[in-house]
Amino acid sequence: MRFYASLIPFLTLVTSFTAVGQSTQKTWWKESVFYEIYMPSYADSNGDGYGDFKGMEAKLDHLQKLGVKGIWLTPFLLSPKVDNGYDVASYYDIDPVYGNTDDFKNYVAEAHKRGIKVIMDMVLNHTSTESKWFKEASKGKDNPYRDYYIWRDKPNNWESFFGGPAWQKDPLSGQYYYHKFDVKMADLNWSNPQVVKEVQEALRYWLNLGVDGFRLDVINFLTTESILTDNPVKEGKQEHQYDIDQAGVKDAIQKIRAVVDEYKDRFIVGEIGSDKIDILKQYQSPGLLDVVFNFNFGSIPSFSTKRIYDELQSMENNMPGYPTLFFGSHDMPRIMDRLAGNDPEKALALAALMLTAKGIPFIYYGEEIGMRNTIAKTPEEMRDIQGKTFYKLAIDAGKNPAAALVEGNDHNRDKSRSPMQWDSSPFAGFSTRQSWIPVNSDFDSVNVERLQQAPYSILNGYKQLIALRNSEKALQYGRYKNLQLSNDLLSFERIYKKEKITVVINFGKGMRKIQPGKKLRILYGTDVLVENGVAIYK
Ligand code: BGC
Questions:
Q1: More confident: 19 or 353
Q2: N or C: where does the chain have the smaller number of CB atoms within 10 Å of the terminal CB?
Q3: Which residues are catalytic?
Q4: Residue 101: strand, helix, or coil
Q5: C-alpha 456 – ligand 1 centre gap (Å)
Q6: What whole-number distance in Å separates Cα of residue 144 and Cα of residue 153?
Q7: Which CATH number characterizes residue 170's domain?
């Protein structure tokens, strides 16, 4: 899905103050910096060109040194990988490309030894059409699995989030099944109690294996009570009004929460596909989700200090408890190109903000070394189903191949999915052979090995900033004071009990001298700030 630009357009600011439940109750996840690993692209141990658990295990020391305390693994369950694992074929089996159950258990145990928790991505809105459930369901109307999915004699006008209609005709029965995403990703019927039971069992299975929580994929899409109502269409574009945020979604989430709460200290972050902060915050409450992915920073299309400041204000004024803080993910273009203009200092200044602001930071793999976008030069180079679908739709609509490529690339999420750059050896130390998606050409200079040797590198900056966040309760739990923007100088204080930390970031041009007051000592940076300079005082 193209959350970055299409599903979640750029958030409009809501200025009313609704600080609900500003709880400072301590939990591990409020103290953690998270790190998202896109499974196929992180580290390949067996030379098949795909990342795997053993490869990732060998890289846990990197994450420990970086200081992260939580890892979010994108889907690793059995899948034909039409959408790289977001099309799950079995909720119990690990895809052999990534290893087996023992590899998974070892990985979690090794992460735990290093004080790092592991949460897994759970895709509960849909399954692959290759799943046993769907294959059975397709056998006929009387099959016991038929009602696991959503079938209609006549489709409504709902469109897929990947483009094109959201209904596919089944040749055998003549009925249509519903798919919010690709035609090979069929939506589960959450009004069937049997589906709920099956999902709850699967969640218990993974909790028993030791996962510390879940990232729930498109979780506000689960139910479809309004299926009889067409979505409105304005200026030729469909508005997703009736196909998301339906009446039963919260009830469904409660059933997931209840299972997670059978276990101690587990965490749920939900991906809510919505641009409306009023909707987002409804799901972040006791009995539902601990936090949601609010796309405040993630939706910023290009750099603007004012915009960043407004989004900070919006999070503070509108998100109950803790917002999530992230600039990138596997669905968005990389920060380095989108916001930092390929300037590692600017990328680090943005990281400083993410790691000192109030909320739960999520770093996307490769951000710590300043990895860049990868752009498909031909349609054949596109791996992402969304990019490919938009390319095809453009061709079908009569666009010429060059224009269709632009359209495809605009929606192509491969941009941020190229292999992690570990060192200067062939294939960047990611694999011993050509990977499923090409390695970025700058890997000789932009890689972990090289950057850790350079004292002032972006990587070492990330380490220092994360170490600071890990050691300072004020950065984990502090409230804001004096959040302000003045001539591109963004500053705020974080106050916790008797501690105060002051953060000043110069996003403007030219040198700025700051006078933080006599009693404060500098924790990071200097009091003369050049462009993109950061100073943190205690
Ligand atoms: C994931 C996407 C995926 C979609 C469908 C999104 O939220 O982040 O990568 O394509 O859900 O599962």
A1: 353
A2: C
A3: 217, 271
A4: helix
A5: 36
A6: 19
A7: 3.90.400.10
The answer as to whether 274 is a domain residue is: no
What predicted TM-score, i.e. pTM, was given to this entire model?
0.95
Q: Which atom of ligand 1 lies nearest, measured to the CA of 87?
A: 12
- Contact (Cβ atoms closer than 8 angstroms) between residue 450 and residue 430: no
pLDDT at position 13 over 70: no
Which of 162, 187, 212 is the last residue before a domain boundary? 187
Q: Which two tokens stand for residue 318?
A: 């509108």
Distance 1 CA to ligand 1 centre (A): 5
Among 76, 181, 216, 413, the mutation site with the greatest number of ligand 1 atoms within 8 A of its Cβ is 181
102 C-alpha vs ligand 1 centroid, how far in Å? 27
Distance of CA 532 to CAs 112, 175, 278, Å?
35, 58, 33
Q: Cβ-count burial of 287 within 10 angstroms (0-12 exposed, 13-18 middle, 19+ buried)?
A: exposed
| Residue linked to tokens 């090979």 | 184
Q: With cut-offs at 50, 70 and 90, classify the pLDDT of residue 518.
A: confident
Instruction: Determine which residue's CA is closest to atom 10 belonging to ligand 1.
Output: 1
150 located within any domain? yes
Hey, is 182 helix, strand or coil?
coil
Number of domains present in the structure of the chain:
2
With respect to residue 384, please indicate whether it lies within any of the assigned structural domains.
Answer: yes
Contact 179, 185 (CB under 8 A): yes
Q: How confident is the model at residue 274 (pLDDT cuts 50, 70, 90)?
A: confident
Provide the domain limits for residue 179: 127-187
